[in-house]
Amino acid sequence: GREWHLIARPEGWPKPEDFALREAPVAEPGPDQVLVRNLYMSVDPYMRGRMNDVKSYTPPFQLNQPMDGGAVGKVIASNVDGLSVGDHVLHFGGWREYAVVNGKNAVKVDPGTAPLPAYLGVLGMPGLTAYAGLLEVASFKEGDAVFVSGAAGAVGSEVGQIAKLKGASRVIGSAGSDEKVRLLLDEYGFDAAFNYKKGPVAEQLKEAAPDGIDVYFDNVGGEHLEAAIGRLNVHGRIAVCGMISQYNVTEAPAAPRNLTLVIGKRLRIQGMLVADHQHLQPQFFEEVGGWIRDGKLHYRETVIKGVENAVDAFLGMLRGENTGKMIVAFED
Ligand code: NDP
């Protein structure tokens, strides 16, 4: 089977030459392991950080080794009690066609409950990030005005809709194209949205949120974060989920320059990692699953076909070519 290796550590924007698709023998599963043929894999922003050789909350990818990440596949050989050939599993052996996975790291998923790619997106890690980030980290409460950046992406589109469903007074989103802005307004029910490429974020946010905001869900950092600090009301909260505008920079950004406002406004700025919020998983699955079934929560996916296109999908996601979760589907 083929698998993707990182072969050089990117400086700034990754290049296709930093990666290689290599052939590897398909291994036999050992005791308590399954052999999985992958059907879908996830490309996520945090993977950019793992390409740097720095200590972080997830270990860096090793050069000339297969990369990994979220994937869903079909069990084709099993030495695990409770997992049979033909079962579908969510696991972490992505970036490759075949994966040997320890039984305790494979979660059985039902394609009858939700389409398989949903377990990587709207009902998966990004979905839980949105749910936990808004409800727990940002302490969202009914009546809050919420601003979310990256609002047409996997996490952001769910943040905005959950806020709306839970009684936000106003939901504002920013995204990188007019088409995405239209989607936020017409399909996801945002009250206001703007294209951050079309003018200063602070000015556009002021127009979109004349009465200020109570929560900022940050996916982007930099100029967005500065604009949000400027617009937050007293006792406002910021959930710092991601800062994608900075993942490929080689020099530290200037913004936010207005941090002193945190004092007078008594703002709370809190970083988050989705792994800390696993206890919300059942509640998330129940509540968001219900909204999807009832047609109250909408989602998009951008699906790129073929393992050979996985790096292009990853780079495309960093450039904003996705609407909703970026997924790679393997040839059947
Ligand atoms: P998305 O589906 O949102 O895809 C990334 C999007 O980022 C692109 O589509 C693009 O949309 C936008 N983007 C890229 N560059 C910029 C830029 N310079 N300024 C503004 N927007 C930009 O990805 P996810 O939903 O998976 O992740 C969203 C954020 O959440 C990321 O920051 C990620 O790191 C973070 N995250 C954090 C987790 C945690 O535990 N802390 C867990 C999961 C995700 P556009 O066209 O609008 O520019």
Task: Describe what you observe in this structure.
Helices cover 25% and strands 25% of the residues. With 332 residues, it is an alpha/beta fold. It has 2 domains: 2-118 and 300-329, Quinone Oxidoreductase, Chain A, domain 1; 125-275, 3-Layer(aba) Sandwich (Rossmann fold), CATH 3.40.50. Strands 3, 4, 5, 6, 7, 14 and 15 form a 7-stranded mixed beta sheet that branches. Strands 10-9-8-11-12-13 form a 6-stranded parallel beta sheet, sandwiched between helices. Strand 12, helix 7 and strand 13 (268-271) form a beta-alpha-beta unit. Helix 2 (125-137) packs across helix 3 (154-165). 45% of the residues are buried. The chain binds NADPH dihydro-nicotinamide-adenine-dinucleotide phosphate. Residues 44-46, 126, 129, 150, 152-156, 175-177, 180, 219-220, 241-242, 244-245, 272-274, 317-318, 320, 322, 325 line the site of NADPH dihydro-nicotinamide-adenine-dinucleotide phosphate. NADPH dihydro-nicotinamide-adenine-dinucleotide phosphate is lined by residues 44-46, 126, 129, 150, 152-156, 175-177, 180, 219-220, 241-242, 244-245, 272-274, 317-318, 320, 322, 325.
Which features does this protein show?
single chain, 332 residues, alpha/beta, Quinone Oxidoreductase, Chain A, domain 1, Rossmann fold, 2 domains, 7-stranded mixed sheet, 6-stranded parallel sheet, 9 helices, 25% helix, 25% strand, binds NADPH dihydro-nicotinamide-adenine-dinucleotide phosphate, GroES-like_sf, ADH_N_2, ER, oxidoreductase
Quick overview of this protein structure:
This protein has 332 residues and is an alpha/beta fold.
